[in-house]
Specification:
This protein is mainly beta. The chain contains one helix and 34 strands.
Length: about 450
């Protein structure tokens, strides 16, 4: 069946490919802190409630399944929502980060696009996932989880930047500046057989950036926080560790943190009892951004087997109580235990303050929403392009395939219209899609096709 779709889509792109080219997303205007920050009343507790059963903004495909999880959501001045999610990868890449802009309260969207890809033969060459995005100084900064060896443990946090929300996020923190080959923003130092560090989230308070991240070791999954001064362009080089702010939780995962201006407090949301029929979203709060306390939970109307959630905020990580606020998460659905085939749900939520915390999650029930799969399309909806392999070792010459990957998880070769640049001409020469060795060495190569880009490495020998 997949071969049939590959052939049809290849023929469609060959004859009508111009209809599938990517159109850049226009500027939607930034929303930043209202400036109405007030001291928070420590005698009250933040509560967040889902207004209804919500709606799916993504469903796994009928052929290859798939997922979109760990959403990071920015509310724009025109009311639209920019959303970044971890996605199943392409070819020899496990995870990537995709971007869309949502309109009409999340019910309509632009075409999805790959915003962040791994860099071959680097610290993040296996996958990039769990995005957290903030904007300041003219850049969108995206923090993400990655690992050097691709085992799924001993992870670190890296960060990249782009002037556009849809990327590509090719400027990555290298340890001393912004370039091509990333090094960690947060490096994990505990038991290497545990998950490690990852799942970052950002809040900007004046000129101080608060960086929240998971730290999963033998004791469980906690949330830690560090700060940085954004007046230094190379702020990742000068982090101040502020401590553990949320202790290991009940099968919880990543905390997404925002600051509510009129309530004078930070709010963190994360999923508890994840992947179970009794899962829910925990709500914690802090008045200094470091010491958090349990405040409430979101369970009524949410789907079962939910995990990896996010809450919307302005471009600097703030929320005004007059803003439309949304939560989103991935879920497996009641009775659906198939790993990696998750839908992504969104709810509009209501914020309020109460005189006491809400901690007994057994008082509410979640919904029996079941994952539905979307039908695959005959027409290709291209997400990204990449070379068949990340790394090539060439003796004399080799023909290479450049593949297009679409939203169904189908891939097919591109037959025309590609261009290559960025490579060392003393090492290789490229004619059409054939690489010729010129001299011994190594070089990165960029490939482009109608607004889509990819990267690979070529090694040549004497």
């Amino acid at each position: 069946m997949e071969t049939f779709y590959q052939i049809v889509k290849l023929l469609f792109v060959f004859f009508f490919g111009f209809t599938q080219f990517y159109t850049p997303v226009p500027d939607a205007g930034d929303l930043i802190s209202t400036g109405k920050t007030v001291p928070g009343n420590t005698e009250q507790f933040i509560q967040i409630n889902a207004d209804d059963r919500g709606f799916d903004i993504w469903k796994p495909h009928s052929i290859n399944g798939g997922y979109r999880y760990g959403p990071s959501i920015i509310l724009n001045a025109d009311g639209s929502l920019d959303i970044w999610c971890a996605s199943n990868g392409s070819g020899d890449i496990v995870d990537i980060v995709n971007y869309r802009r949502l309109y009409n309260g999340g019910t309509k969207s632009t075409k999805e696009k790959v915003a962040l890809m791994p860099t071959p033969e680097s610290h993040d060459s296996k996958w990039v996932c769990d995005p957290g995005v903030i904007k300041f100084g003219g850049y969108y900064y995206i923090g993400y989880t990655t690992t050097l060896d691709g085992r799924g443990v001993d992870n670190d946090v890296c960060v990249a930047r782009s002037k556009s929300p849809d990327g590509p996020f090719n400027e990555k923190w290298t340890g001393s500046g912004w370039g091509a080959k990333p090094l960690p923003l947060i490096e994990y130092t505990d038991n290497p057989e545990c998950f490690g560090a990852g799942e970052p989230s950002f809040v900007l308070m004046d000129k101080t950036l608060y960086i929240y991240y998971s730290w999963a070791n033998d004791e469980g999954v906690s949330t830690r926080v560090a700060t940085a001064d954004i007046t230094d362009e190379n702020w990742p080089a000068n982090l101040t560790y502020r401590g553990e702010c949320i202790p290991p939780k009940n099968s919880g995962d990543s905390s997404d943190v925002k600051y509510i201006d009129e309530y004078g407090r930070f709010v963190a949301v994360f999923t508890e009892k994840r992947f179970s029929d009794d899962s829910y979203i925990a709500v914690w709060e802090s008045f200094d951004g470091v010491a958090f306390r349990e405040s409430g939970y979101i369970k009524a109307n949410t789907a079962k087997k939910l995990h990896n959630c996010g809450i919307s905020g302005r471009s600097d990580g703030h929320i005004s109580i007059n803003d439309p606020v949304y939560i989103s998460y991935a879920y497996g659905g009641a009775g659906d235990g198939e790993w990696g085939n998750w839908a992504t749900r969104m709810h509009k939520v209501t914020l309020s303050l109460s005189d006491s915390p809400k901690t007994d999650d057994t008082l509410e029930k979640n919904s029996d929403s079941v994952v539905e799969r979307q039908k695959s399309n005959l027409l290709p909806d291209i997400l990204t392009i990449k070379a068949e392999k990340q790394v090539y070792n060439i003796k004399n010459s080799e023909h290479i395939w450049i593949l297009a990957y679409d939203s169904d998880g189908i891939y097919f070769p591109l037959l025309y219209g590609m261009s290559f640049d960025g490579y060392d001409k003393s090492v290789i020469n490229i004619v059409g899609t054939t690489i010729y060795a010129v001299g011994a060495g190594s070089t990165y190569v960029n490939v482009h096709w109608h607004g889509f880009s990819g990267q690979f490495v070529v090694h040549t020998a004497e």
